[in-house]
Amino acid sequence: MRRQLTYKTRWYGSTLAVLDRWFPSSKTCSACGWQNPRLTLADRTFHCTNCSTTIDRDLNAARNIAQHAVLADQLLAPGRGETQNARGAPIRPPGPRAGGQEAMKREDTSPARPVPPQRSDPLTLFTLDDTGHETAKRA
Protein backbone atom coordinates (compact mmCIF):
# COMPACT_ATOMS: atom_id res chain seq x y z
CA MET A 1 0.00 0.00 0.00
CA ARG A 2 2.80 2.39 0.92
CA ARG A 3 4.63 1.71 -2.36
CA GLN A 4 1.48 2.41 -4.35
CA LEU A 5 0.81 5.65 -2.47
CA THR A 6 4.39 6.81 -3.05
CA TYR A 7 4.11 6.01 -6.74
CA LYS A 8 0.77 7.78 -7.16
CA THR A 9 1.80 10.90 -5.25
CA ARG A 10 4.88 11.29 -7.44
CA TRP A 11 2.76 10.69 -10.54
CA TYR A 12 0.30 13.46 -9.62
CA GLY A 13 2.91 15.83 -8.21
CA SER A 14 1.63 15.72 -4.64
CA THR A 15 3.49 14.81 -1.44
CA LEU A 16 3.11 11.88 0.94
CA ALA A 17 3.49 12.36 4.68
CA VAL A 18 3.90 9.35 6.99
CA LEU A 19 3.72 8.80 10.72
CA ASP A 20 4.87 5.96 12.95
CA ARG A 21 2.24 3.23 13.08
CA TRP A 22 2.11 3.23 16.87
CA PHE A 23 2.10 7.02 17.43
CA PRO A 24 -0.76 7.73 19.88
CA SER A 25 -2.37 10.44 17.74
CA SER A 26 -5.81 10.21 19.32
CA LYS A 27 -4.50 9.89 22.89
CA THR A 28 -2.24 12.97 22.69
CA CYS A 29 -3.50 16.53 23.18
CA SER A 30 -2.95 18.53 19.98
CA ALA A 31 -2.62 21.76 22.02
CA CYS A 32 -0.12 20.86 24.75
CA GLY A 33 1.10 17.29 24.05
CA TRP A 34 -0.31 15.67 27.22
CA GLN A 35 -1.22 11.99 26.75
CA ASN A 36 -4.27 10.19 28.11
CA PRO A 37 -3.37 6.46 28.03
CA ARG A 38 -6.83 5.46 29.38
CA LEU A 39 -8.72 6.85 26.37
CA THR A 40 -10.72 4.08 24.68
CA LEU A 41 -12.33 3.83 21.25
CA ALA A 42 -15.72 4.40 22.88
CA ASP A 43 -14.60 7.88 24.02
CA ARG A 44 -15.50 10.15 21.11
CA THR A 45 -14.35 13.40 22.78
CA PHE A 46 -10.82 14.13 23.99
CA HIS A 47 -10.64 16.02 27.31
CA CYS A 48 -7.20 17.30 28.31
CA THR A 49 -6.70 17.64 32.07
CA ASN A 50 -3.48 19.60 31.52
CA CYS A 51 -4.75 22.55 29.42
CA SER A 52 -8.55 22.01 29.61
CA THR A 53 -8.93 21.47 25.86
CA THR A 54 -12.07 19.62 24.79
CA ILE A 55 -12.10 18.49 21.16
CA ASP A 56 -13.53 15.73 18.96
CA ARG A 57 -11.27 12.68 19.13
CA ASP A 58 -10.88 12.37 15.32
CA LEU A 59 -10.17 16.10 14.87
CA ASN A 60 -7.56 15.90 17.64
CA ALA A 61 -5.91 12.91 15.94
CA ALA A 62 -5.94 14.68 12.57
CA ARG A 63 -4.21 17.73 14.04
CA ASN A 64 -1.57 15.52 15.69
CA ILE A 65 -0.93 13.68 12.44
CA ALA A 66 -0.57 16.97 10.56
CA GLN A 67 1.92 18.24 13.20
CA HIS A 68 4.06 15.11 13.52
CA ALA A 69 3.99 13.48 10.09
CA VAL A 70 7.24 13.51 8.11
CA LEU A 71 7.38 13.81 4.34
CA ALA A 72 8.12 10.41 2.86
CA ASP A 73 10.83 11.83 0.58
CA GLN A 74 12.79 12.92 3.66
CA LEU A 75 12.96 9.32 4.88
CA LEU A 76 14.88 8.14 1.82
CA ALA A 77 18.59 8.54 1.26
CA PRO A 78 19.21 11.53 -1.02
CA GLY A 79 20.75 11.21 -4.46
CA ARG A 80 19.61 7.68 -5.24
CA GLY A 81 17.47 8.60 -8.19
CA GLU A 82 14.85 6.33 -9.66
CA THR A 83 15.42 2.60 -9.49
CA GLN A 84 14.69 0.28 -12.38
CA ASN A 85 12.83 -2.98 -12.47
CA ALA A 86 14.46 -6.34 -13.17
CA ARG A 87 14.42 -5.84 -16.93
CA GLY A 88 16.08 -2.42 -16.77
CA ALA A 89 19.43 -1.09 -15.72
CA PRO A 90 21.15 -1.96 -12.43
CA ILE A 91 19.11 -1.25 -9.33
CA ARG A 92 21.96 0.48 -7.53
CA PRO A 93 23.99 3.23 -9.13
CA PRO A 94 27.55 2.13 -9.89
CA GLY A 95 29.83 2.66 -6.95
CA PRO A 96 33.55 2.36 -6.34
CA ARG A 97 33.31 -1.45 -6.09
CA ALA A 98 31.12 -1.92 -9.15
CA GLY A 99 32.50 -4.82 -11.15
CA GLY A 100 30.85 -3.89 -14.39
CA GLN A 101 27.86 -6.12 -13.74
CA GLU A 102 24.80 -5.22 -15.72
CA ALA A 103 21.25 -6.47 -15.72
CA MET A 104 21.00 -9.54 -17.89
CA LYS A 105 18.26 -11.82 -19.05
CA ARG A 106 18.42 -15.29 -17.50
CA GLU A 107 16.29 -17.10 -20.04
CA ASP A 108 17.77 -19.60 -22.48
CA THR A 109 18.73 -17.66 -25.61
CA SER A 110 20.13 -20.61 -27.59
CA PRO A 111 18.53 -21.19 -30.99
CA ALA A 112 15.47 -23.37 -30.73
CA ARG A 113 15.40 -26.72 -32.50
CA PRO A 114 12.64 -26.84 -35.08
CA VAL A 115 9.78 -29.09 -34.06
CA PRO A 116 7.71 -30.58 -36.86
CA PRO A 117 3.98 -29.94 -36.62
CA GLN A 118 2.06 -32.83 -35.13
CA ARG A 119 -1.57 -33.76 -34.92
CA SER A 120 -2.92 -34.72 -31.56
CA ASP A 121 -4.53 -38.11 -31.34
CA PRO A 122 -6.04 -38.91 -27.94
CA LEU A 123 -5.74 -42.64 -28.59
CA THR A 124 -1.97 -42.51 -29.14
CA LEU A 125 0.26 -43.60 -26.25
CA PHE A 126 3.86 -42.55 -26.08
CA THR A 127 6.56 -44.76 -24.59
CA LEU A 128 10.34 -44.44 -24.40
CA ASP A 129 12.49 -46.82 -26.39
CA ASP A 130 15.99 -48.05 -25.43
CA THR A 131 17.63 -44.85 -26.69
CA GLY A 132 15.34 -42.56 -24.69
CA HIS A 133 13.26 -41.37 -27.63
CA GLU A 134 9.49 -41.38 -27.65
CA THR A 135 7.70 -43.90 -29.79
CA ALA A 136 3.98 -43.80 -30.47
CA LYS A 137 1.67 -46.76 -30.12
CA ARG A 138 -1.91 -46.75 -31.15
CA ALA A 139 -4.23 -47.91 -28.34
TrEMBL record:
Presence of keyword Iron-sulfur: no
Keywords per UniProt: DNA-binding
This protein's record includes keyword Repeat: no
MF annotations from Gene Ontology: DNA binding
Signal peptide: none
Protein name, as recorded: Transposase
Basic and acidic residues biased stretches: 130-139
Region: Disordered, residue numbers: 75-139
Pfam families assigned: Cas12f1-like_TNB
InterPro entries given in the database record: Cas12f1-like_TNB
Domain Cas12f1-like TNB: 2-65
